[in-house]
Design brief:
Layout lengths: L4 H12 L5 H8 L3 H17 L6 E2 L5 E2 L2 H9 L1 H6 L5 H13 L7 H8 L3 H15 L5 E5 L3 E5 L2 H16 L4 H8 L4 H18 L1 E3 L1 H19 L11 H5 L2 H9 L8 H12 L3 E4 L10 H16 L6 H20 L17 H9 L2 H7 L5 H17 L9 E5 L4 H14 L4 E6 L1 H5 L7 E4 L8 E4 L6 H16 L8 H11 L5 H12 L18 H4 L5 E4 L5 H14 L5 H10 L11 E2 L13 E14 L2 E10 L7 H11 L2 H9 L3 H13 L2
Helix pairs in contact: 1-3, 6-8, 6-9, 7-8, 9-10, 9-12, 11-12, 11-14, 14-15, 16-17, 16-18, 16-19, 17-20, 18-20, 21-29, 27-28
Keywords: Activator, Cytoplasm, Kinase, Phosphoprotein, Phosphotransferase system, Transferase, Transport
Pfam families: Mga, PRD, PTS_EIIA_2
Protein name: Ascorbate-specific PTS system EIIA component
C-alpha cells in the first residue's frame, strides 16, 4: 500500500511537531475536518500494513503518536519516502532538479523511469513545468543530440535553481530527493556543510536552520553548472558594494580550491550569502550600508505616527528587524525576491497592521531604489506584530478611520492630512474615492466624507476644506460619539471680558488671537517638520508667465488647452498630459465652488516638474449642465505630497467670494498674484 502526498505531509507534521491539534492541521493545509479524518484513516491503514500502532486522537483534538511509530519512521525515512505517491507538483519539482543538475542526455525514457509514470504523464508534466519557467524567461528545449535541457539567461536559471531547492527542502524528505536525483557527492556536501559553519564564525552570525540545510545543495549545484560553463552574464551590480563585504571574503573561502571561477560567479555567490536569512548577528550595522539603520528608524517613526502606537525597547526591535532587512536589502535591490517567496498570506489578525507597515516603508524604498514587495513587508509585519503583542498593544484596540471623498485623489489627500492633524489618536488607513470605498476590504470603525455613504461604520459628514470653527465642532462631535464626552470649549470672548475687568489691554485684537491659538491648539495643523521637503505656496508655483487672461473660449476642451499652454511651453508637462486631462475631465468633481476648476491627471501621464498654471475667462464656459467655470488651475503634481499646500490654498480661495471678485475684475496678472500671495501669509 502507498501513502498519498497529503496523508504523508500530515503524518510527517505530527511526528515532527508533537502537540498539534486537528484544527492546526486544518488551518495550515487548508483542509476541513472531514478531509483530515479521511487522511488519518488512510494513515492508520498504512501503519497497519507496517505492523505499527495506529494514531489515536483525544477529545481535545490532540494526536497521540506511539513512540514506536516515531522512532521507526525517523529511522527508516528513506524507505518511508519510497512508499509515497508523488503529487503533480512534486513530479514537476523533480523534473526541474533533473534539468538544472543535468550531467547527461535527458530523454523521455529517463523521465518515465525516474518518476515511474507514463510517457503521456511526463509530457503533460513538462508543459506545466514550462508554465513555471515563464516568469524566469526560460524554456525547455529538445534536440536529438542534447536531449531535454533548459535555455535562458543563467542569472534567471540560478534564481530558479535556488527557488526550487528551497521549495523542495520544505517538504518531507526533500533533501534526500534532491541528493538522489541530482546525484550529488556526499563528500562534497559534507565539505560545504563544514565550510558554512566556518563562514558563520567569519561573518559573526548564525544562519537560520533552513539556510544551513539548503546552502550545501545550492552551492554544489551552482558549482556544477559553473564547471559545465553555464556562466552568469555580466549583470548590473555595484562591484565595490559587494567586494567590501565580509561575505566576499567568505566566498573566497568557499572557492579556495576553485581558482578559475570567474568574477561574476564569485559576486553571485557573495550575493547568495548576503541574501540568506539569519537569526543572530554580532553586528547591528554594516559599514557597507551605513544608511540602512537610519532608514529603518525612519520606517518605525512613520509607523508610530500612522498607527498611534509607541514602540517600547526600540533598540531591540531594530536589531531584530535589521537581521531581516539587511538580506532583504540585497534581495530587493538585485531583484532576487523570488528566492524568498512568502508562501503564506498575512493572517487576518495582521491585515490592517500589514497595510500600515507597507505605508511606512518609504524610507527603505528610497534607500534601495526599488519598491518593496509583499513577500518582504509581510515578514516585517510579523516581526512588528509579535513585538506589539509582547508589549501588550494591538492595532485592533485602535479606532481605525477612512477618508472618502468624491473630489479626486488630491482633494482626498488634502482632507486626510487635515483630519490626521485634528485626530492624532485615530489610525487613518486610507483616503479613498467612493468607488474604491465600496470595494475596500480592511476593517474600519469611522468614515469621514463630504457625501453620504451606506456603511455600518460611524459616518461623519465633513466639508472638503475645514475652517477652524468647523474643526472645533467636528472634534467635539467625534469625541462625543466615540468616547461619550465633549472636550470643554473655552470662550475667548468670555476670557477677554474677564481680563478687561481687571486691567487695561493695549492690543486687544493681538491678545485675542494669541488666546485663540493657545486654547484651540489641538485643532491647528501641526508645525511642519523641518526634515521634510518644503511644500511651495500657490503664488510661488503660479508665476506671472503661467497666468493667462482671455475674454472667452468656445468650449471646455479649448479652455483646458489654453490653460495648459504655459506649462507645455516651459516643458513642465507634455501634450500627452493635456490629453490625459481631457480624457477624464468629464468628472464633475474637479469643479470647486465659485466657478473654480482644478483639472489634473496622474504624474506618469507626462509631468516633468511640479507646476500649476491659471486661466481667467471674462465669460464663463459651460462644463456640464450643472456647472459653469470661469477660473481654471491646471495642476501638474510630481508626487503625492509637494503640491498639497498649493492645493489647500486653491480650496480656501474657492470659498472666498471677496477674493474671487477681485480676481474677476483684475486688469493685470500682477493683481491676481497679489491675491494669491495673501494665502501664503495665512498658512
Amino acid at each position: 500500500m502507498q501513502l498519498d502526498q497529503r496523508s504523508s505531509d500530515l503524518l510527517n507534521e505530527i511526528i515532527k511537531n508533537p502537540g498539534l491539534k486537528s484544527t492546526d492541521l486544518e488551518s495550515k493545509y487548508t483542509l476541513n475536518r472531514r478531509q483530515v479524518k479521511y487522511s488519518f484513516d488512510k494513515i492508520n491503514n498504512w501503519l497497519k500494513t507496517k505492523n505499527l500502532p495506529k494514531i489515536e486522537r483525544t477529545k481535545q483534538g490532540l494526536f497521540m503518536v506511539d513512540s514506536v511509530v516515531t522512532s521507526t519512521l525517523l529511522d527508516t525515512e528513506q524507505e518511508y519516502s519510497d512508499d509515497n505517491i508523488l503529487s503533480d507538483w512534486e513530479r514537476e519539482d523533480i523534473l526541474l532538479i533533473l534539468l538544472l543538475s543535468k550531467q547527461e542526455e535527458l530523454s523521455l525514457i529517463h523521465f518515465t523511469s525516474t518518476l515511474d509514470v507514463s510517457k503521456n504523464t511526463v509530457l503533460s508534466d513538462l508543459k506545466k513545468v514550462q508554465e513555471r519557467l515563464d516568469p524566469y524567461h526560460s524554456e525547455i528545449t529538445y534536440t536529438r543530440r542534447e536531449g531535454y535541457e533548459l535555455e535562458g539567461k543563467e542569472f534567471s536559471v540560478r534564481k530558479l535553481l535556488i527557488n526550487t531547492v528551497h521549495r523542495m527542502m520544505e517538504r518531507s524528505n526533500g533533501a534526500w530527493r534532491i541528493f538522489e536525483w541530482a546525484e550529488l557527492n556526499k563528500e562534497e556536501m559534507n565539505t560545504f556543510h563544514n565550510k558554512i559553519h566556518s563562514i558563520e564564525q567569519t561573518l559573526q552570525l548564525k544562519f537560520t536552520d533552513e539556510k544551513i540545510e539548503s546552502m550545501p545543495y545550492v552551492l554544489s549545484l551552482i558549482l556544477r553548472r559553473i564547471k559545465q560553463r553555464h556562466f552568469i552574464d555580466p549583470f548590473y551590480i555595484h562591484y565595490q558594494e559587494l567586494m567590501d563585504t565580509k561575505e566576499w571574503k567568505a566566498t573566497e573561502e568557499i572557492l579556495e580550491n576553485q581558482p578559475h571561477v570567474p568574477m561574476e560567479e564569485r559576486l553571485f555567490i557573495t550575493l547568495h550569502l548576503l541574501t540568506a536569512n539569519v537569526y543572530w548577528s554580532q553586528d547591528l550595522t554594516e559599514e557597507t550600508i551605513p544608511e540602512l539603520l537610519h532608514s529603518l528608524e525612519e520606517v518605525l517613526h512613520q509607523f508610530e505616527k500612522s498607527s498611534c502606537i509607541y514602540l517600547h525597547n526600540k533598540e531591540q526591535l531594530l536589531h531584530r528587524l535589521m537581521l531581516h532587512v539587511k538580506p532583504a536589502y540585497y534581495r530587493v535591490k538585485y531583484k532576487l525576491t523570488e528566492m524568498n517567496e512568502w508562501h503564506h498570506t498575512v493572517s487576518e489578525e495582521f491585515q490592517e497592521l500589514h497595510h500600515l507597515v507597507k505605508q511606512s516603508t518609504g524610507p527603505l524604498e528610497t534607500l534601495i531604489g526599488e519598491a518593496i514587495p509583499d513577500s518582504e513587508t509581510a515578514y516585517l509585519t510579523m516581526l512588528i506584530g509579535g513585538w506589539l503583542t509582547k508589549q501588550g498593544d494591538s492595532i485592533h484596540d485602535k479606532i481605525k478611520a477612512l477618508v472618502v471623498c468624491p473630489q479626486g485623489v488630491s482633494v482626498s489627500r488634502l482632507l486626510l492630512g487635515e483630519l490626521k492633524d485634528l485626530f492624532p489618536e485615530l489610525v487613518f488607513l486610507n483616503a479613498l474615492s467612493v468607488r474604491d470605498f465600496r470595494k475596500y476590504e480592511l476593517d474600519y470603525d469611522v468614515v469621514f466624507s463630504p457625501v453620504f455613504l451606506q456603511t455600518d461604520a460611524k459616518l461623519f459628514l465633513v466639508s472638503k476644506v475645514l475652517n477652524p470653527s468647523e474643526k472645533q465642532r467636528l472634534r467635539q462631535q467625534v469625541m462625543s460619539e466615540l468616547h461619550g464626552y465633549t472636550p470643554e470649549h473655552l470662550s475667548v470672548e468670555h476670557i477677554m471680558d474677564i481680563i478687561k475687568k481687571h486691567t487695561d489691554i493695549s492690543h486687544s485684537d493681538a491678545l485675542a488671537q494669541e488666546l485663540e491659538r493657545y486654547l484651540h491648539q489641538d485643532v491647528r495643523p501641526m508645525a511642519p517638520d523641518p526634515s521634510i521637503d518644503r511644500k511651495p505656496h500657490l503664488y510661488e508655483i503660479v508665476s506671472g508667465d503661467r497666468v493667462k487672461l482671455l475674454p472667452q473660449v468656445d468650449s471646455w476642451e479649448k479652455a483646458v488647452k489654453e490653460a495648459s499652454e504655459p506649462l507645455v511651453e516651459d516643458n513642465s508637462i507634455t501634450e500627452n498630459y493635456v490629453n490625459a486631462i481631457l480624457s477624464q475631465s468629464a468628472d464633475p468633481y474637479i469643479v470647486l465652488g465659485n466657478r473654480i476648476a482644478i483639472p489634473h491627471a496622474k504624474p506618469e501621464e507626462g509631468v516633468h516638474n511640479l507646476s500649476i498654471s491659471f486661466l481667467r475667462l471674462d465669460q464663463s464656459v459651460t462644463f456640464d449642465a450643472d456647472h459653469e467655470v470661469q477660473f481654471i488651475f491646471i495642476i501638474a503634481a510630481l508626487d503625492k505630497h509637494h503640491h498639497l499646500q498649493a492645493l489647500r490654498q486653491i480650496m480656501r480661495l474657492s470659498q472666498n467670494s471677496k477674493d474671487i471678485k477681485v480676481i474677476e475684475k483684475a486688469v493685470s496678472k500682477e493683481e491676481i498674484q497679489t491675491v494669491l500671495q495673501q494665502y501664503a501669509l495665512h498658512e
